[in-house]
Design brief:
The complex is a heterodimer of chains A (238) and B (75). With 238 residues, chain A is mostly helical. Helix content of chain A is 81%, strand content 0%. Chain A has one domain. Classes of the chains: A mainly alpha (238), B mainly alpha (75).
Chain lengths: 238, 75
């Protein structure tokens, strides 16, 4: 009977999703192109020079790595409490996107750190907590792959996602709580010059649209995958 | 142009960052779309093999055709 409830929603979801995805994809491409053009042609940062150009990839990756995790944690809570099947699918479909952004955040940070700090990596509060986020994502993905029954896998993964969410405030406040190499955030406090802030915010919007677009596509894939699984089980019983 | 790509001598740090980040995004879109297309094909194939099940419950046309197969499994 739980499945009846499950089916009531995905049909509606797929219709809305299929209608929205082409527009979101188009918006992503436009924002990405505009942000890259403005960012790469902007004058170099006064103190850091050319390496600060890395920020256009690093900052949106970093913000998205946490935003996606936040979304995944909320979806996991909804899936655990209300057993909403789409929430479960949304959480699962987010994981690889978030893990990827965490990886690009770490790699771009490393490439930025070498010319400005003189090192690719330091066991510093901000860097380490972001690395922990990456491992939490990997753990989450591993649970889904290790447990075959989607209901059991979903519950275990959701608990991990919720437990891992303590890391989000740690990452965010790490630059204030501890002495760290990492500079504090300036973008959303209006401390960044518009010449740099406009392309940065445009690229952040582009990365966000990218996330929603890919999330919707991956959710559809997950719904199709679960239908395949159910049909196969049914055929095996017949 | 060459000056732009040289990035004041920091090209080694800057361009790989862009290639990795944008490359990841392109890879994710391509692999998601390819996986979705492949799974849709498998589902269509499965539904073709069990069409009587799909029709038996008289699903309305308003639901996506690709959903019918799974809906029968609740019966």
């Amino acid at each position: 009977m739980a499945n009846l409830h499950w089916l009531a929603n995905p049909g509606r979801f797929l219709r809305i999703s299929n209608a929205v995805v082409p527009y979101l994809a188009g918006l992503t491409v436009v924002l990405l192109a505009y942000g890259l053009w403005r960012g790469l042609t902007a004058p170099h940062d006064a103190t850091q020079g050319a390496p600060a150009t890395i920020m256009y990839m690093h900052v949106p990756s970093a913000i998205m790595s946490m935003t996606v995790y936040g979304g995944m944690a909320v979806a996991s809570a909804v899936a655990l409490i209300w057993k909403h099947p789409l929430a479960d699918i949304a959480a699962k479909s987010s994981a690889l996107i978030g893990a990827g952004f965490t990886a690009t955040c770490l790699i771009s940070g490393s490439m930025w750190g070498r010319p400005t700090w003189g090192t690719y990596w330091a066991w510093d509060a901000r860097l380490t907590s972001e690395l922990v986020l990456f491992f939490v994502y990997l753990g989450y993905i591993a649970i889904w792959q290790a447990i075959e029954d989607p209901q059991r896998a979903g519950r275990a993964a959701a608990i991990l996602a919720l437990a891992g969410s303590v890391n989000l405030p740690i990452i965010h406040y790490s630059v204030e709580w501890w002495n760290t190499l990492h500079q504090p955030a300036g973008l959303l406090q209006g401390k960044t010059d518009p010449v740099l802030a406009v392309p940065l915010l445009t690229l952040l919007a582009a990365f966000f649209c990218f996330y929603v677009t890919v999330l919707l596509l991956r959710m559809e894939r997950e719904i199709v995958g679960r239908k395949i699984r159910q049909l196969r089980l049914l055929q095996a019983q017949a | 142009m060459a000056e732009f790509f040289a990035m004041d001598g920091y090209a080694f740090y800057i361009w790989p960052t862009y290639i990795v980040t944008l490359g990841f995004m392109i890879w994710l879109v391509v692999s998601t779309l390819r996986g979705l297309a492949a799974d849709r094909k498998v589902l269509a194939e499965l539904e073709k093999n069990a069409p009587h099940r799909a029709r038996r419950r008289g699903e309305t046309a308003s639901s996506s055709p690709s959903l019918r197969g799974a809906e029968t499994s609740d019966a």
